[in-house]
Model the fold of this input.
Amino acid sequence: MINYAIEKHIKLIKIKFIINLYKDTFLHSRKKCNFEIYFRSTKKTLMKYLVFLFSILLFSCTSSEKKLTAQQIIDKTIVASGTDKIKNSKITFKFRDLNYTAIRENGKFELSREIDTVKDVLTNDGFKRFVKGNETELDEEMNGKITNSINSVHYFSVLPFGLNDKAVRKKLLPSTKIKDKEYYKIEVSFVENGGGEDFEDVFIYWIGKQDFLIDYLAYSYHTNGGGKRFRVLKEQCNRNGIRFVDYHNYKPLTKEIKLINLDDAFENNQLKKVSEIVLEDIKVEILD
Done:
């Protein structure tokens, strides 16, 4: 939106540009750049000055906007999705016939899943299985598989929560478009120390430039022979101010398709749908 006023006193012309720039934020906050330019001119050259100066001023105003870093984008995404509330919360949901509960409070966590008389619990202190309320010992291999499974489900259920953990490394990739919507593209990897058993996994998130919400994500994994997945927003809901998302889950038709190019592969129909990720009966309690 551009307004300009011209006040002429003899040969002195004052031109005032008021340029309203709309920044890409979740709240669509508005920022103004004001310019006042004085110059001497005749009516004949006035329009020439107007066109020239407007081009220069618009460029200088927009270029002065600070380019967002990967960290700043993730920070905005966490706030936009409401997942900043998760650090002190109790969340329950059902996924593929299993009941999941996550309790997080002041840095401590208890992540569990339960079916019939079996309850698996993962805490800061490690993993335990209970059968009919009694702790049961498991061999190391089974222990590791269940731990990874519980951690994975809970991790994906509350994204982008967790993307500011100390072990996370963020890299801003070139922006892109999917279905005519503009996205920031951020690669996330993990350092070995604190990154868990799957620290070699790599994720890519497509974050809307206007709403700062994740509509697509991709990841590579190394367990069970390894592979790549690309998830597409199916449905979303809001529970107590927190956004939860269901996804269509795809894999590439060939192993040659690189992780970073899965968005292009999706648009070119080079992916195959393998499942849906749907959370049911979601309940959220914010802990004081």
Remarks:
- The CA atoms of residues 250 and 273 lie 4 Å apart.
